[in-house]
Amino acid sequence: MGGRLTGVRHLLPVALHQDRKSIAPWIALISVLSASSVLVYDWVFPDPEAQRILQLNVTANPAMALIFGKPVDLTTADGFNAWRAGALGMFFSGLMAIFIVVRNSRAEEDSGRAELVASGVIGREARPAVAVALAAMAALLLGVVSALVTIAFGGGVANSIMLSATFTASALLFAGVGVVAAQVGSDARAANTLAVTVLGALFVARGYIDSSGAPDWAAWLTPFGWLQETRPAVDNIWWPLALVVGLALVLVGVGLALHARRDFGMGLVPPRPGPARAGAVGTLWGLALRLHRSALASWMVGFAVLGILLGFLANTVTDVFAENPGIAQILASGAVAQEDLVAEFLLTMIRLLGIYAAVHGVQVVMRLYAEELEFRADPLLGGATTRAAHLASHAVIAFLSTAVGMVVAGSVMGWVADATGDTIGFADVLGQTVATIPAVWVLVGLALAVVGAKPSKRLAGWMAVVATFAITILGPMFTLDEWVLDISPLWHVPNVQAADPAWGGLVGLALVAAAFTAIGFAGYRRRDIA
After folding, report:
1. Which residues have CB under 8 Å from 312's CB, separation 6+?
2. I want to staple 135 with a disulfide (CB 3.0 to 4.6 A). Which of 175, 179, 203, 449 is the partner?
3. Per-residue pLDDT at 176
C-alpha cells in the first residue's frame, strides 16, 4: 500500500497551497454562523419571557425544524446556537468537503494536469488520497477555528467544542462520499452533482423526520441524525461521532478501491457517445439546452420530491399544534387562530421552495461564465453568434426553468396535501407558488447582472441568495426592522389567502428583475470575454 501512496507527502503541500483560498471562505462562513448565534442571543432574547416566545414561535412552525432541526433547549445561548447553526453548519461542512475532494481529484483529470503528475513517481492512489487528506485537514481546521471563535464570542467551552466537532465529522463523512462520487461520475461536474445530491437527500430526509413528528428512533436513519444525537449544549454525547467517522473511513476505503479499478479519465458510469449528427445541438438554443439538460433533469426531480415531502408534511401541522401544550394553550385562549398558524407554515414552505429555485437559477447563470473560462464561448462568439443571443440562450433557460420548477413543486405539494388531508388546499398552494416566481427572478436577474457586467464579483449572486434566506427565515425571529426585511425579495410576495393581497409588490419585483437583466445584457456587450 505504501508504494500505491507514493508521492502523497510531496503533493499535499502543493494542493494545500493551491486550494487554501477556496477553503478559507467556507471555514469563515461556518465559524461566523456559529459565533453570531451566541453573539446576538442575549441581545435579542434578554429575558425568560422572550425566550419562551422564541420557543413557541419555533415549535409552532414545523418548517423551522425542516431547516434547523428539532429545538432542544432555546433558553440558553449555547442551546440556541446548537439549534440555529447545527444542521446548517453540518450541511455546509459536507458541501465544503465534497468540493475539495472532487476539485483536487476528478477535476484534475478533466483538466489534464493529473496526467502530468501521474507521469512522475506517483502511486496510483496518491492523488485521491491527497484530496481526502486535504479535506480532512480543512475539516479539522474548521472544527478548531469554529470552536475558538464561538468561545471568544461567549460560547461555553465544552458546548462550543461539541458543536464544532459535529461540523468536522460531517466534513469527514462527505469527503468519503466525494471520493466515491469522483470514481463513479463521468467527469467532475457529474461527480459533484452525484455527491451533492446524496448530501441534499440526506439533509431533506433529516428535515422531514424532525418536522413530521416521527418517533425518536427515526433520527438514526440518517448520518445527520447521528450527529444530532450528540445533543450539543444539552448532553454533549461524544460516541455518535465515532459512528460517523467510522462510516467516513469505510467510504474512503471504497473510493480508493474503485479508483484502482477504473480507467484514468473515465468514471465507472461512462459518458454516452454523442449523436452522429448535431441535430438540435447545432443551433445556439439547442446547444444551451444540451449544456443544462442533465442539471435541469436533476433539479426537476428535486422539485417534485420536495413537493411530495412538503405535501405530506403539510398535514402534520395540526398534529404538531395538538402535541405542544404551549401552542394548544394559546389556541384555546383565542390569541391566535389555527388557520393563521397554518397560513404562516404555508408561506414559509413556499419561501423555501423559492430559495431552492433561486439556487438552481443562479447555477444556470454561472454556467455561462464557466463556458468562458473553459474557452468554449470563444468559438461561438467568433462566428455569427452575437453576444446578446449567447447570453439570452442561458438567461431564458434560467428564468423559465425556475418558473417551471416552482409550478411543478407547488402542483405536487398541493395535490399531495389535498389528497391526504384537509389542512391545505391545492389552489392555495399553487397560487402562492406562482406568486413567488417574480421574487425568484429578482435573484436570478441579479446573478445575470453580475455575470454579464462584472463576473469577477459573481460571488455576489450567491451571497444574495444566502442573504435572502437569512433575512426571510430568521429576520422575523430576530425582530428585524421592516426596512431590513424589505431587502429580501421574498418579503414582497403577497399572501394570496389574505382578504386583500398586495398585488403591487409583484409588479415591483418584476420591474427589478427586468432592470437587473438589462444591466446584465448591457454589461455583457461591453466587457472582455473571460
Report:
1. 208, 212, 416, 417, 420
2. 175
3. 96
